[in-house]
Amino acid sequence: MLTAVLFALALASKAQTPGVKPATPSGQPATRSAFVQGTLNLAIGERATLRRQPDGSYVLDHVERISVEDVAPPANGGRAETLNGTSPGTVRLALNARRDVGSILKVENGTGEALQYNAFIVRIAGGKPQPPAKTSVCTIPAGLVSYEHWPEPVIQVVAGGLKATPEKTPACG
């Protein structure tokens, strides 16, 4: 049922005007993403901010609705020099899609350490939601941004196991 709802919302998000945040449908919660027992369930069209605790664990700080421009890499093809407002000690994950660019997950690391995590995606293939599938992701160096891209519609990312890593350069797998 949740997958069907997310699929319908994913289709609706494709029709949005660039730069305009979609209105929350009446009767629907303002956001759909959740963070439970160290695992983030990130819905399309949303950005979740996780705040690192002194013991190294994370808590959900807040979730907001976003447009596809909020996840797109820099237009000039250069490096993303800023974290777009990510505050120290936080990590932001944002997911959105558009027919002409596919699906993009943007992960912003506002911590002082490189991070690694695991992820599963729920995508649409042949017009139908597919079961969650493990996907490769890259480590995120301290203070930088990482992008993941899929050509097909991804309506949900489940990310967990977020922890510091000694890797100084991105490692993907």
Word description of this protein:
- The protein has 173 residues and is mainly beta.
- The protein has one domain (2-14, 37-74, 89-165): Immunoglobulin-like (Sandwich), CATH 2.60.40.
- It contains one helix and eleven strands.
- A hairpin with a 5-residue loop joins strand 3 (46-52) and strand 4 (58-65).
- Residues 1-18 and 22-28 have low confidence and may be disordered.
The CATH architecture can be given as: Sandwich
Give the CATH class: Mainly Beta
- Give the overall average pLDDT: 83
Determine the N-to-C terminus distance: 31 Å
The number of distinct β-strands equals 11
Helix run count: 1
Question: What structural class do you assign from the helix and strand content?
Answer: mainly beta
